[in-house]
Amino acid sequence: MPLFITDDELARYSNDAPHVAARADDYIRRLQTELDTVKAAADANAVTAEQTCSLLEHKFLSLSTEFSTLQSQNALLQSTLDERLSELAEAQAQKHQLHLQSMGKDGEVERLATDLSELRKSNRQLLELVEQKDAEINDKKATINSYLDKIVNLTESASKKEARLYEVEAELVHSQAACSRLSQEKEIVDRHNSWLNDELTAKVDSLIELRIRHSNLEEDLSAKLACAEKQLSESSSSAQRNKDRADELEAKLTSLQEELCSTKDAAVTNEEQLSAELSTANKLVELYKQSSEEWSRKAGELEGVIRALETHLGELENDYKARLEKEVKSRSQLEKEAADLRGKLEKYEAEIESSRRNSELNLLPVNSFSTERHIPKPRILSW
Length: 383
Prior knowledge:
Elements: H1 7-12, H2 17-234, H3 239-288, H4 293-363
Helix pairs in contact: 2-3, 2-4, 3-4
């Protein structure tokens, strides 16, 4: 009976050999594939077995090395155990000896206790002696402290006396220096007082001279103004004389203006000099005002003099300004009068020219009116 087909199928397909062969081929192929899979599984199992074997061998080697190390450690531990047992025996022997020694020490402790009781008694006696000595020492310390306090008080009093002596000496030196400084300041103040007195006398003299010069200058200017007014009153006589006189008056006015300007400049320079000198005097007065009461009183007097001088200078300045305004007004009046005179002169010239023409027309014959003649235009002088 074949394995790849049943009996019924074999009976049915007994005459069909290709079908049976195909079925046999299929069965063989399946067997071949199963064989391949089994071989692959066997190979895989062999590989895994080899790997596990190698792992087991490796583990065996490691375990054998560990076993050898453990054996060596066991031998070492055994030797150390023997050493510890010998040490324990020695320790027990030492313990026995120490017990014997402790018994001897107990006897010594009892003896030392008796000695300690005796020492305590002697210590009490010594403490009593120490207390007595402490009391004596405290008494001595009290006496020593009292002596020290006395010494400290004496040293403090001596130091205070020395400090007071130094202070008195310093005050003496300071007073001597102050006296010398005051004497020097007194000399300086005296010198400055004399110098200021000289300066003030010189300034007062210069101011008096300046006032005299200004009064003389005022008189000269008033005389010149009177002469100018007189000349102006005389200039109204005739036209030609008025014309000439107007020229002369203009020249005189220019000269007077120049003189007034020069006098004004001189007055301004004098005022500036006086103001500078007064400022220096004020500064000197302010500097030396703080020296003493007498100096302050003198400074007050000087300030009064300076104020008086300033008021006088202000009056002079106002007077000069008023006179200058008068001169300006007089000049404007003179210019107005000169303009009026010029107008009158032109009027007179026009009247003279018209009268001359009329006289010429009256003198000409009748037939001369037919001829054309050029009559020149009269020339009017311009002023």
